[in-house]
Specification:
This protein is an all-alpha fold and about 300 residues long. The chain has a single domain, classed as Growth Hormone, Chain: A. It is built from 7 helices and 2 strands, in the order ααββααααα. The chain has a two-stranded antiparallel sheet. Helix 1 (about 40-75) runs parallel beside helix 4 (about 140-170). It is globular. It is found in: Membrane. Its main location: membrane. Belongs to the major facilitator superfamily. Proton-dependent oligopeptide transporter (POT/PTR) (TC 2.A.17) family. It is a multi-pass membrane protein.
């Protein structure tokens, strides 16, 4: 280390010390014992440990909300699996126009746009007129919107079961119903997506610790992937318990021999139970901005 010239009216600097003849003096110690560290340094380490503990508490509070989103995503994946299987067993014509079952997912995108407009132009104004309690933003809170999405998903599964019951009744008479009967279930599934997934991203980003916002946002998106895995597990469990003794099971290659309606009713019941579990956690959830410790 180099030493700068020291004015004669000041004492010579010690080795390893860099001095400046101005009002500010910077001291660089080449070797310092822990005993030379002021007591304030220990308190700063204690503060950092305390902040890390608070961040862990925030993550643990987010965990139950995150788990309920996985269950919701397992129902959402039915749009790409059992909904298509159900549509293939129908008359794929709407007003003399052939609409492949797999293309109904495109209609769900249109429904998403419709729900976005309905939310801002009709739903929120109607709730305001009815005296509904909002958060400080003047619209339903993120937790309220997520709860509405979970409830709409249960409704979508129930409608799917009713449509399948009608399809089975028509098949027993040797008739086919049009695939247009699937439009309501896609519509309410799109509503669940708008209310739950958008609010979920906002919620996880807002509630995440400052140093983990990207990670928590990724966890919100991870629920869709884990929901697909959960859905596959549900299929395996349903097949193990229903496709026995020569029975075709609930989800059969030939839906006319199966009971896909039972599966949809089971999914509706699971989504309803998930909604009540979520409601219990959401009511007791303490928002980050209500914490006594300021996270910076």
């Amino acid at each position: 280390m180099y030493k700068l010239p020291v004015p004669t009216d000041k004492e010579p600097a010690d080795a390893g010390t860099l001095c400046d003849d101005g009002d500010k003096v910077d001291i660089i110690c080449e070797s310092a014992d822990l005993k030379d560290i002021p007591e304030e340094a220990g308190s700063s380490w204690s503060l950092r440990t305390m902040l890390q503990g608070e961040e862990l508490k925030i993550l643990l509070r987010l965990l139950p909300i995150w788990v309920t989103s996985i269950v919701m995503s397992s129902a959402y994946t039915q749009m790409n699996t059992t909904f298509i299987q159900q549509g293939n067993a129908m008359n794929v014509s709407i007003l003399s126009v052939k609409v492949p079952a797999a293309s109904m997912g495109s209609f769900e995108v249109v429904c998403v746009l419709t729900w976005v407009l309905l939310y801002s132009k009709a739903i929120v104004p109607a709730l305001r007129e009815s005296g509904f309690s909002f958060g400080g933003s003047g619209e339903p809170t993120q937790l309220q919107r997520m709860g509405a999405g979970l409830l709409l998903m249960a409704l979508a599964m129930a409608i799917s079961a009713l449509v399948e019951m009608k399809r089975l009744g028509s098949a027993a008479r040797g008739e086919e119903i049009t695939i247009a009967w699937q439009i309501p279930q896609y519509f309410f599934l799109a509503g669940a997506e708008v209310f739950c997934y958008i609010a979920q991203l906002e919620f996880f980003y807002a509630e995440a610790p400052e140093t983990m916002k990207s990670t928590c946002t990724s966890l919100a998106l991870l629920t869709i992937a884990l929901g697909s895995f959960l859905s596959s597990s549900i299929y395996a469990i349903v097949a193990a318990f229903t496709a026995t003794g020569g029975s075709a099971g609930w989800i059969s290659d030939n839906l006319n021999q199966g009971h896909l309606d039972y599966f949809f009713w089971a999914m509706a019941a699971m989504c309803t139970l998930n909604f009540f579990v979520y409601t219990a956690f959401a009511k007791n959830y303490k928002l980050k901005n209500q914490d006594s410790v300021l996270m910076t």
